[in-house]
Amino acid sequence: MGLSERGLATMPKSLQTKTLLIAYASVSGNTKEVAKLIAEELTHKQQDVTLYCINGNEQFPHVPDYDAMLIGTYTWGSGDTPFDVKDFVADVGYKPEKVFVFGTGDTQFGGDDMFCMAADKLAKFYHSPIAPLKIEQSPRGSQEEEVLEWTRGVLECLN
Protein backbone atom coordinates (compact mmCIF):
# COMPACT_ATOMS: atom_id res chain seq x y z
CA MET A 1 0.00 0.00 0.00
CA GLY A 2 1.12 3.53 -0.68
CA LEU A 3 0.67 6.69 1.34
CA SER A 4 -1.39 9.67 0.29
CA GLU A 5 -0.22 13.25 0.89
CA ARG A 6 -1.92 13.19 4.28
CA GLY A 7 -0.05 10.06 5.29
CA LEU A 8 -3.10 7.79 5.05
CA ALA A 9 -2.67 4.37 3.55
CA THR A 10 -4.05 4.08 0.04
CA MET A 11 -4.81 0.94 -1.91
CA PRO A 12 -2.94 0.26 -5.14
CA LYS A 13 -5.01 1.58 -8.03
CA SER A 14 -5.91 -1.89 -9.29
CA LEU A 15 -7.48 -2.83 -5.95
CA GLN A 16 -9.66 0.22 -5.35
CA THR A 17 -13.19 -0.79 -4.47
CA LYS A 18 -15.90 0.56 -6.74
CA THR A 19 -19.64 0.52 -6.17
CA LEU A 20 -21.20 -1.22 -9.14
CA LEU A 21 -24.80 -1.70 -10.17
CA ILE A 22 -25.58 -4.75 -12.26
CA ALA A 23 -29.07 -4.23 -13.69
CA TYR A 24 -30.43 -7.01 -15.87
CA ALA A 25 -33.59 -8.28 -17.53
CA SER A 26 -34.06 -12.01 -17.96
CA VAL A 27 -36.90 -14.20 -19.17
CA SER A 28 -35.32 -17.63 -19.59
CA GLY A 29 -32.74 -17.17 -16.82
CA ASN A 30 -29.72 -16.91 -19.12
CA THR A 31 -29.10 -13.18 -18.62
CA LYS A 32 -29.63 -13.63 -14.88
CA GLU A 33 -27.02 -16.39 -14.89
CA VAL A 34 -24.52 -14.11 -16.66
CA ALA A 35 -25.30 -11.28 -14.22
CA LYS A 36 -24.63 -13.57 -11.26
CA LEU A 37 -21.33 -14.78 -12.74
CA ILE A 38 -20.23 -11.18 -13.26
CA ALA A 39 -21.31 -10.28 -9.71
CA GLU A 40 -19.40 -13.23 -8.24
CA GLU A 41 -16.22 -12.28 -10.10
CA LEU A 42 -16.48 -8.62 -9.12
CA THR A 43 -17.18 -9.52 -5.50
CA HIS A 44 -14.20 -11.88 -5.56
CA LYS A 45 -12.14 -8.86 -6.69
CA GLN A 46 -13.38 -6.88 -3.63
CA GLN A 47 -15.90 -4.74 -5.51
CA ASP A 48 -19.15 -3.55 -3.92
CA VAL A 49 -21.86 -5.02 -6.15
CA THR A 50 -25.64 -4.58 -6.23
CA LEU A 51 -27.70 -6.90 -8.43
CA TYR A 52 -30.98 -5.44 -9.67
CA CYS A 53 -33.55 -7.39 -11.70
CA ILE A 54 -35.12 -4.89 -14.10
CA ASN A 55 -38.25 -6.98 -14.57
CA GLY A 56 -38.60 -7.76 -10.86
CA ASN A 57 -40.29 -6.00 -7.96
CA GLU A 58 -37.22 -4.61 -6.21
CA GLN A 59 -36.87 -0.96 -5.24
CA PHE A 60 -35.46 1.09 -8.12
CA PRO A 61 -31.77 1.84 -7.51
CA HIS A 62 -30.43 5.38 -7.17
CA VAL A 63 -28.00 5.13 -10.09
CA PRO A 64 -25.89 8.22 -9.19
CA ASP A 65 -24.77 6.36 -6.04
CA TYR A 66 -22.74 3.95 -8.19
CA ASP A 67 -19.33 4.37 -9.80
CA ALA A 68 -20.53 2.41 -12.83
CA MET A 69 -23.51 0.51 -14.16
CA LEU A 70 -23.48 -2.83 -15.94
CA ILE A 71 -26.68 -3.53 -17.82
CA GLY A 72 -27.70 -6.93 -19.13
CA THR A 73 -30.40 -7.73 -21.62
CA TYR A 74 -31.73 -10.40 -23.89
CA THR A 75 -32.80 -9.59 -27.45
CA TRP A 76 -36.47 -9.80 -28.32
CA GLY A 77 -38.36 -10.30 -31.59
CA SER A 78 -36.45 -9.03 -34.60
CA GLY A 79 -33.44 -7.67 -32.72
CA ASP A 80 -35.46 -5.50 -30.35
CA THR A 81 -34.54 -4.24 -26.91
CA PRO A 82 -37.15 -5.50 -24.40
CA PHE A 83 -39.70 -2.95 -23.17
CA ASP A 84 -38.60 -3.53 -19.55
CA VAL A 85 -35.06 -2.49 -20.45
CA LYS A 86 -36.24 0.55 -22.43
CA ASP A 87 -38.37 1.59 -19.44
CA PHE A 88 -35.40 1.13 -17.09
CA VAL A 89 -33.21 3.32 -19.31
CA ALA A 90 -35.93 6.00 -19.39
CA ASP A 91 -36.44 5.79 -15.62
CA VAL A 92 -32.71 6.27 -15.00
CA GLY A 93 -33.26 9.59 -16.76
CA TYR A 94 -29.69 10.33 -17.82
CA LYS A 95 -26.65 8.61 -19.32
CA PRO A 96 -24.25 7.63 -16.55
CA GLU A 97 -20.61 8.19 -17.45
CA LYS A 98 -19.53 4.55 -17.17
CA VAL A 99 -21.91 1.92 -18.51
CA PHE A 100 -20.94 -1.58 -19.59
CA VAL A 101 -23.35 -3.84 -21.48
CA PHE A 102 -23.79 -7.60 -21.64
CA GLY A 103 -26.38 -9.64 -23.45
CA THR A 104 -27.62 -13.11 -24.19
CA GLY A 105 -29.11 -14.32 -27.41
CA ASP A 106 -29.75 -17.26 -29.65
CA THR A 107 -28.48 -17.41 -33.23
CA GLN A 108 -31.32 -19.85 -34.05
CA PHE A 109 -33.64 -16.84 -34.08
CA GLY A 110 -32.47 -14.25 -36.57
CA GLY A 111 -28.97 -15.58 -37.18
CA ASP A 112 -25.78 -13.65 -36.63
CA ASP A 113 -27.30 -10.36 -37.83
CA MET A 114 -29.72 -10.14 -34.91
CA PHE A 115 -27.63 -11.97 -32.31
CA CYS A 116 -27.54 -9.85 -29.14
CA MET A 117 -28.66 -6.80 -31.11
CA ALA A 118 -30.21 -5.25 -27.99
CA ALA A 119 -26.79 -5.34 -26.30
CA ASP A 120 -25.24 -3.65 -29.33
CA LYS A 121 -27.91 -0.93 -29.29
CA LEU A 122 -27.43 -0.25 -25.58
CA ALA A 123 -23.63 -0.16 -25.86
CA LYS A 124 -23.93 2.37 -28.68
CA PHE A 125 -26.51 4.46 -26.78
CA TYR A 126 -24.33 4.62 -23.66
CA HIS A 127 -21.01 4.97 -25.54
CA SER A 128 -19.74 1.99 -23.58
CA PRO A 129 -15.93 2.03 -23.28
CA ILE A 130 -15.67 -1.67 -24.20
CA ALA A 131 -17.57 -3.89 -26.60
CA PRO A 132 -20.66 -5.58 -25.18
CA LEU A 133 -20.35 -9.13 -23.92
CA LYS A 134 -22.47 -11.43 -26.09
CA ILE A 135 -23.35 -14.90 -24.86
CA GLU A 136 -25.09 -17.60 -26.88
CA GLN A 137 -27.92 -18.79 -24.62
CA SER A 138 -26.31 -19.61 -21.23
CA PRO A 139 -22.75 -18.91 -20.04
CA ARG A 140 -21.83 -22.54 -19.46
CA GLY A 141 -18.75 -24.27 -20.79
CA SER A 142 -16.22 -22.17 -22.68
CA GLN A 143 -18.48 -19.12 -22.53
CA GLU A 144 -18.00 -18.88 -18.77
CA GLU A 145 -14.38 -17.87 -19.40
CA GLU A 146 -15.62 -15.19 -21.84
CA VAL A 147 -17.75 -13.74 -19.05
CA LEU A 148 -14.80 -13.67 -16.63
CA GLU A 149 -12.49 -12.14 -19.25
CA TRP A 150 -15.02 -9.41 -20.09
CA THR A 151 -15.50 -8.70 -16.38
CA ARG A 152 -11.75 -8.25 -15.95
CA GLY A 153 -11.89 -5.80 -18.87
CA VAL A 154 -14.57 -3.82 -17.04
CA LEU A 155 -12.33 -3.61 -13.96
CA GLU A 156 -9.40 -2.42 -16.07
CA CYS A 157 -11.55 0.39 -17.49
CA LEU A 158 -12.59 1.45 -14.00
CA ASN A 159 -9.08 1.65 -12.55
Provide tags for this entry.
159 residues, 7 strands, alpha/beta
What is this structure, in a nutshell?
One of its GO terms (molecular function) is oxidoreductase activity, acting on NAD(P)H. This protein has five helices and seven strands; from the N terminus they run βββαββαβααβα.
Commentary on this structure:
InterPro entries: Flavodoxin (IPR050619), Flavodoxin/NO_synth (IPR008254), Flavoprotein-like_sf (IPR029039). Pfam families: Flavodoxin_1 (PF00258). This is Ribonucleotide reductase-associated flavodoxin, putative. With 159 residues, this protein is α/β, with parallel strands linked by helices. The chain has a single domain, classed as Flavodoxin domain (Rossmann fold). Helices cover 35% and strands 21% of the residues. The chain has 5 helices and 7 strands. It has a 5-stranded parallel sheet, with helices on both faces. Strands 1-2 form a two-stranded antiparallel ribbon. Strand 1 (2-3) and strand 2 (9-10) form a beta hairpin. It is globular, with a radius of gyration of 16 Å. The two termini are 16 Å apart.
Mean pLDDT: 86
Count the helices. How many? Answer: 5
CATH superfamily: Flavodoxin domain
The low-pLDDT segments are: 1-14
Q: Helical percent range?
A: 25-40%
The CATH class: Alpha Beta
Number of strands: 7
Order of helices and strands: EEEHEEHEHHEH
The shape is: globular
CATH fold name: Rossmann fold
Portion of residues in beta strands equals 15-25%
Going across the major beta sheet, what is the strand order? Answer: 4-3-5-6-7
Rounded to the nearest angstrom, the radius of gyration is: 16 Å
Q: In the residues, how many domains can be counted?
A: 1
Biggest β-sheet: count, sense, barrel? 5 strands, parallel
- Structural class estimated from helices and strands: alpha/beta
Known CATH architecture = 3-Layer(aba) Sandwich
Question: CA-to-CA gap between the ends?
Answer: 16 Å
